[in-house]
Amino acid sequence: MKVRIYVTLKQAVLDPQGKAVHRSLQRLGYKEVTDTRVGKYIELSMENGDRAKAASRVEEMCKKLLSNPLIEDTRYEFAD
């Protein structure tokens, strides 16, 4: 099974990379863009099995390695 993981900075955390991208888009003429936040996308392939157990393992991976829970939010989805 495939798992798609999205990691983003918490809303209260400043995003300097997002601000730099936003400024660049504005300079390129994309004035309709009002805000930009940059995050990470991670795709995992896991052995097929119990989805509840897989979800628990993904949450554990996110907390231990894939994200910093103090400043980042994570969400994931299973791709069938």
Ends: how far apart?
7 Å
Question: Any idea what the shape is?
Answer: elongated
Briefly, what CATH class? Alpha Beta
Q: Which CATH-level-2 architecture?
A: 2-Layer Sandwich
Helix- and strand-based class?
alpha+beta
Kindly report the name of the CATH homologous superfamily: Phosphoribosylformylglycinamidine synthase subunit PurS
Largest sheet: number of strands, sense, barrel closure: 3 strands, antiparallel
Count of DSSP H/I helices: 2
N-to-C series of helices and strands: EHEHE
How many β strands by DSSP?
A: 3
Spatial order of the strands forming the largest sheet? 2-1-3
Count of discrete domains: 1
Mean of pLDDT: 96
Write up what this structure looks like:
- The longest helix has 16 residues, at 51-66.
- Helix content is 35%, strand content 28%.
- The N and C termini lie close together (7 Å).
- It is α+β, with helices and mostly antiparallel strands and 80 residues long.
Annotation keywords:
80 residues; alpha+beta; elongated; Mth169, Chain: A; single chain; three-stranded antiparallel beta sheet; 3 strands
